[in-house]
Amino acid sequence: MKQSVYDLTQQHRSIRQFKDEPLSKETVQKLVEAGQMASTSSYVQAYSIIGITDPEIKKALKEISGQQHVVDNGYLFVYVIDYYRHSLINKETNGNMETSFESAEGLLVGTIDVALAAQNVALTAEDMGLGIVFLGSLRNDVGRVSEILDLPEHVFPLFGMAVGVPSDDEQGSPKQRLPFEHVFHENQYNSDKEQQLEQIKQYDNDIKDYYEQRSNGKRSESWSEQIRKMMSQKTRPDILEKLNIKGFMKK
Ligand SMILES: Cc1cc2nc3c(=O)[nH]c(=O)nc-3n(C[C@H](O)[C@H](O)[C@H](O)COP(=O)(O)O)c2cc1C
Predict the structure, then answer these.
(1) CA 21 → CA 124, 130, 153, distances in Å?
(2) Which residue has the CA at smallest separation from atom 3 of ligand 1?
(3) 68 with 76: CB under 8 angstroms?
(4) For residue 213, is pLDDT > 90?
(5) More confident position, 97 or 213
(6) Is residue 225 part of a domain?
(7) Which of 28, 58, 67, 156 has the maximum number of C-beta atoms within 10 A of its C-beta?
(8) What is the sign, positive or negative, of the torsion defined by CA atoms of 54, 59, 62, 64?
(9) Same domain, 52 and 16
(10) How far is the centre of ligand 1, averaged over its atoms, from the C-alpha of 50 (Å)?
(11) Taking 90 as the threshold, does the pLDDT of residue 227 lie above it?
């Protein structure tokens, strides 16, 4: 019996090792078409998806991300916010559409559009028995990614996605998420500090156990320790400047 979409979501985990089996053109097209049918804010479709087939370009992107799975995969996608076509309409019609796409709201709209399309691609790939991993590491050098991919003004690279047949070594269970009660609020946000702190403590213990089991006792880190370390460093502090250079967040 075919599994439900719900079942599929519950099996997700990022795959970082793939078999040397390139995706066919038909599969790539199907995945992109799945992405395109995601909802899109006001029908703006403010994104493009760039498929990377040139090994030299893959290699150059791997240098930026520092991750081997950027080159070793069945296929590599790069997802960009794309207001280039909107800017062409704007120029052709002497409009003032830049009030939308150069605003903070425009950035949110584009980012959400990209994420929705990408998650449709991810789920469809997983339904085909493929594995995926998102690659935010491409934002390590947005300027260089823009040069390599020849991105014009009003096009901004958000992340990549490696797709492929999971390698036989890729075995493991899905990473436990925050419990339902922690993320679901009914009618109003529950900001009860004691309750939230207690919930975090419980989750920390669960995640510590999970890492200990997975690493045979070598790794023992709670969720909040992990998140505190990661979020205490200002990652990619140049992003606002790079957004401005590309014509985003100017208004
Ligand atoms: C936008 C985004 C960017 C990500 N960037 C990377 C990345 O650069 N490299 C990587 O190995 N994983 C990356 N990931 C994968 C996350 O680390 C992963 O989804 C998270 O740890 C949860 O694990 P799971 O996907 O296996 O459930 C990214 C995920 C998202 C959504």
Answers:
(1) 18, 11, 35
(2) 136
(3) no
(4) no
(5) 97
(6) no
(7) 156
(8) negative
(9) yes
(10) 19
(11) yes
Find the CATH number of the domain harbouring 21: 3.40.109.10
Question: From the CB of residue 153, how many other CB atoms can be counted at a distance below 10 Å?
Answer: 13
Give the integer Cα–Cα distance in Å for 240 and 97.
21
pLDDT number for residue 11: 96
Ligand 1 pocket residue status of 159, Cβ below 6 Å: yes
Is the residue at 250 inside a domain? no
Predicted local distance difference test score (pLDDT) of residue 2: 78
Task: Determine the structural domain holding residue 111 and report its residue range.
Answer: 5-170+234-245
Q: How far is CA 103 from CA 80, 111, 192, 199, in A?
A: 17, 12, 34, 37
- If one residue of 69, 111, 133 were mutated to test the ligand 1 pocket, choosing by the most ligand atoms within 8 A of its CB, it would be 133
Average pLDDT, the chain: 95
Helix (H) or strand (E) holding 236: none
Confidence of residue 220 (pLDDT cuts 50, 70, 90): confident
Whether residue 228 lies inside any domain: the answer is no
Atom of ligand 1 nearest to the CA of 14: 26
Task: State whether the beta carbon of 14 lies less than 6 angstroms from ligand 1.
Answer: yes
Q: Give how many domains the chain has, as a whole number.
A: 2
Task: Report which ligand 1 atom has the smallest distance to the Cα of 137.
Answer: 8
CA distance 212 to 179: 19
Q: Once rounded to an integer, what is the mean pLDDT over residues 37-52? A: 98
Does 116 fall in a domain? Answer: yes
Distance 123 CA to ligand 1 centre (A): 14
Confidence class of residue 219 from pLDDT cuts 50, 70 and 90?
confident
Our mutation pick for probing the ligand 1 site, out of 77, 112, 135, counting the most ligand atoms within 8 A of Cβ, is: 135
